[in-house]
C-alpha cells in the first residue's frame, strides 16, 4: 500500500478538532494542550544566541551534533542507568514525535501488529498505520491506576505482534509504571520477541516520592528497546522541536537514513543550546521548580474535581489528570462540548486517546494556578446548574 493510501487511513487529531471549535470563544480557559506554560529558561536562550554568534547555522550530521549525542549519553548513564554509545546508539531528532514513525519503519512489515496500552497518546496509532502495521489497543483500568498489566497484554498478543509501545509517565492518565511492572513487561517482551518503544518525555515530572524507571536499563533490554525522549517538556522547549532516541546501532543506522531523506538534521544552533543546557546546573534547578509548581496545581485540580463529584485518581506523573465523567450521564464528547459552550473551559474527551478513554476527560494542569481555580469554579457551577452531579 502506498503512503498516500495510508494517509487516508489516519484522521486528524480529536484534540485539534476540539480546538477548532474553541476558536473565537471569548474568555476561554484552555486545559487541553499538553504544553508547559513556562518559558524556556533564559540561559538556554542565551546558549542558542551564542551558537548563532559562532556561526552554527549550517547542517549538522544527520544523526545530530556529536557534542549533543555525548551530552545525552552522559545524561542517560547518570539519570537512567542506560549505557548508550553516542557514536552509533544515540540519534537526535526534530522533536521526539519523529521517533515512532521512523523507528517503526526500521523493522515493521506490512500487517504486523503493535500493542499500545490505552488510553494512549494520539500519535502512536497513526504512526503504526503509516509504517504499514496494525495498532492493537490494550486497555488499562482505573482500578489498577491505569498501569499496564501483563495479564492484559497476554489477551492481545498474536503471532503477528512485533512491538509494544509504553509511555511512563503516561499521557493522558498520569500513570507511572513501577520497576516491578517494567520487569514483568520485559519478561513478556523477551518471551514474545518484541521490540519496545519506551516514551519517557515526562520522566522528570513525578510526584509523591515516585521514581520513573527506564526499561532499557534492565538486564539485556537495551538490545530490544527504543528509548524516546526530548527537550520539549523537560526544559519547556516545545517550539524548539528537539528530541532524541537511544537504541541498538542497527536501528539508529536505519533511522538516520530515514532522517537523511526527510528533515536532513535538527536545527544546529538548537542542538548546541540543548547540549549546553544538559550540562548546566541551572537547567535542572529550573526543572525542579517546574515540577514543584505542577505538583501544587495537581493537588488543587485533583481535590476540586473530586469535590464537585467527578471521581478522579491522583496522577503520579506528567501534568495531566483523567477524571471519570460517565456518571454524569453524558458521553465524554458531550461533556467536553458542554464545558466549552457553557463554562468556557476546554477539556479533551477521553475517547480521543482510544476506546479505553471513553467516559473520561483529560485535563492538562500546565496552566497558571489562578486560571485552574477559575476553571474549576466554572465547571462546578455548570455541573450544579445542570444537575449532573
Write out key terms for the chains shown.
single chain, 2 domains, three-stranded antiparallel sheet, 389 residues, Aspartate Aminotransferase, domain 1, Aspartate Aminotransferase, domain 2
What report would you give on this structure?
- By secondary structure, the protein is α/β, with parallel strands linked by helices.
- The chain has two domains: 3-40 and 283-382, Aspartate Aminotransferase, domain 1 (Alpha-Beta Complex), CATH 3.90.1150.10; 59-280, Type I PLP-dependent aspartate aminotransferase-like (Major domain) (Aspartate Aminotransferase, domain 2), CATH 3.40.640.
- The protein is built from 13 helices and twelve strands.
- The chain has helices at 3-7, 14-22, 42-53, 66-80, 98-104, 124-130, 150-156, 179-192, 249-260, 268-278, 281-307, 332-343, 369-386, and strands at 29-30, 90-93, 113-118, 134-139, 161-167, 195-199, 225-230, 243-246, 320-321, 345-346, 348-349, 361-364.
- The strands form three sheets. The protein has a seven-stranded mixed β-sheet, sandwiched between helices. A three-stranded antiparallel β-sheet has the order 9-12-11. A two-stranded parallel ribbon has the order 1-10.
- It is globular.
- The mean pLDDT is 96.
**N-to-C CA distance:** 49 Å
The CATH topology of the largest domain corresponds to Aspartate Aminotransferase, domain 2
Q: How much of the polypeptide forms β-strand, as a percent range?
A: 5-15%
Rounded Rg: 21 Å
What is the tally of beta strands?
A: 12
Helix content: 40-55%
**Numbering strands along the chain, what is their spatial order in the largest sheet?**
2-8-7-6-5-3-4
Backbone shape: globular
Number of domain units: 2
Amino acid at each position: 500500500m502506498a503512503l498516500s493510501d495510508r494517509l487516508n487511513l489516519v484522521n486528524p487529531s480529536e484534540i485539534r478538532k476540539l480546538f477548532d471549535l474553541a476558536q473565537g470563544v471569548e474568555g476561554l480557559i484552555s486545559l487541553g494542550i499538553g504544553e508547559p506554560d513556562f518559558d524556556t529558561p533564559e540561559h538556554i536562550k542565551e546558549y542558542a544566541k551564542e551558537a548563532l554568534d559562532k556561526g552554527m547555522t549550517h547542517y549538522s550530521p544527520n544523526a545530530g551534533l556529536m557534542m549533543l549525542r555525548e551530552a545525552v549519553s552522559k545524561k542517560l548513564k547518570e539519570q537512567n542507568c542506560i549505557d548508550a554509545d553516542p557514536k552509533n546508539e544515540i540519534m537526535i531528532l526534530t522533536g521526539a514525535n519523529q521517533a515512532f514513525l521512523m523507528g517503526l519503519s526500521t523493522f515493521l512489515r506490512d500487517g504486523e501488529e503493535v500493542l499500545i496500552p490505552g488510553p494512549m497518546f494520539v500519535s502512536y496509532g497513526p504512526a503504526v498505520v503509516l509504517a504499514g502495521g496494525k495498532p492493537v489497543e490494550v486497555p488499562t483500568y482505573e482500578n489498577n491506576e491505569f498501569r499496564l498489566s501483563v495479564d492484559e497484554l497476554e489477551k492481545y498478543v498474536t503471532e503477528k505482534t512485533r512491538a509494544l509501545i509504553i509511555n511512563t509517565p503516561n499521557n493522558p492518565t498520569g500513570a507511572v509504571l513501577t520497576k516491578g511492572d517494567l520487569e514483568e513487561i520485559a519478561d513478556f517482551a523477551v518471551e514474545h520477541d518484541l521490540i519496545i518503544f519506551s516514551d519517557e518525555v515526562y520522566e522528570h515530572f513525578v510526584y509523591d516520592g515516585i521514581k520513573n524507571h527506564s526499561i532499557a536499563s534492565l538486564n539485556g533490554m537495551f538490545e530490544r528497546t527504543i528509548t524516546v525522549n526530548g527537550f520539549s517538556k523537560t526544559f519547556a522547549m516545545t517550539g524548539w522541536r528537539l528530541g532524541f532516541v537511544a537504541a541498538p546501532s542497527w536501528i539508529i543506522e536505519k533511522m538516520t537514513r530515514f532522517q537523511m531523506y526527510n528533515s536532513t538534521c535538527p536545527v544546529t544552533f538548537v542542538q548546541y543550546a540543548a547540549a549546553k543546557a544538559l550540562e548546566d546546573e541551572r537547567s535542572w534547578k529550573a526543572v525542579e521548580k517546574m515540577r514543584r509548581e505542577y505538583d501544587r496545581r495537581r493537588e488543587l485540580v485533583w481535590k476540586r474535581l473530586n469535590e464537585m463529584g467527578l471521581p478522579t485518581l491522583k496522577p503520579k506523573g506528567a501534568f495531566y489528570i483523567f477524571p471519570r465523567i460517565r456518571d454524569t450521564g453524558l458521553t465524554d464528547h458531550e461533556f467536553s462540548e458542554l464545558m466549552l459552550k457553557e463554562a468556557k473551559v476546554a477539556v479533551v474527551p477521553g475517547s480521543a486517546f482510544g476506546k479505553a478513554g471513553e467516559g473520561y476527560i483529560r485535563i492538562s494542569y500546565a496552566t497558571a494556578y489562578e486560571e485552574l481555580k477559575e476553571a474549576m469554579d466554572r465547571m462546578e457551577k455548570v455541573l450544579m446548574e445542570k444537575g449532573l452531579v
